[in-house]
Amino acid sequence: MAAKILVVDDQMGVRRLLYEAFREEGYDVDMAASGHEAITKVMEEIPGLILMDMKMPGMNGLEALKEIKKINQAIAVIMMTAYGELEIVTQAMKLGVREYITKPFDLNELKLLVKQTLIEIEAC
Ligand SMILES: [Mg+2]
Questions:
Q1: How far is the CA of 95 from the centre of ligand 1 (A)?
Q2: How far is the CA of 1 from the centre of ligand 1 (A)?
Q3: Which position among 78, 81, 102, 123 has the lowest Cβ density within 10 Å, counted as fewest Cβ atoms?
Q4: CA–CA gap between residue 91 and residue 93 (Å, rounded)
């Protein structure tokens, strides 16, 4: 069965881009436009991997991550940060996020990162 990826980003253009790109790769993709929506979706069904934007109005990615980790500690998350958000990256790493990508990202690089992360999870 295809892994389920949850794309969390407040920008519709980014959500659509990632939705299309990962659907094309054969993944089952779902989207959330906010941290709150992401938490609701994770409570309904644990995805295989989350692509989480950091900069979002209201609840940011880090706050959403903290709540999601309470639901499932082992969930794999790739953070999408803007250049210079090193403090947020450091905090995210403390919460167990191993991977992050800086916006604007290269789509092929992100696809590879997702693939590698999913392989690592399966190997656990
Ligand atoms: Mg954003």
A1: 20
A2: 30
A3: 123
A4: 5
SS3 assignment, position 43: helix
CA dist 88 and 95 (Å) reads: 11
Per-residue pLDDT, 13? 97
Q: What is the mean pLDDT of each run of 10 residues along the chain (124 residues)?
A: 94 98 97 98 97 96 96 95 88 91 96 95 80
Between the CA of 103 and the centroid of ligand 1 the distance, in Å, is 10
Q: What is the pLDDT of residue 92?
A: 93
User: Residue written as tokens 């656990």?
Assistant: 124
Distance between CA atoms of 44 and 10, rounded to whole angstroms? 20
Question: What pLDDT does 122 receive?
Answer: 85
Interatomic CA distance for residues 13 and 121, integer angstroms: 29
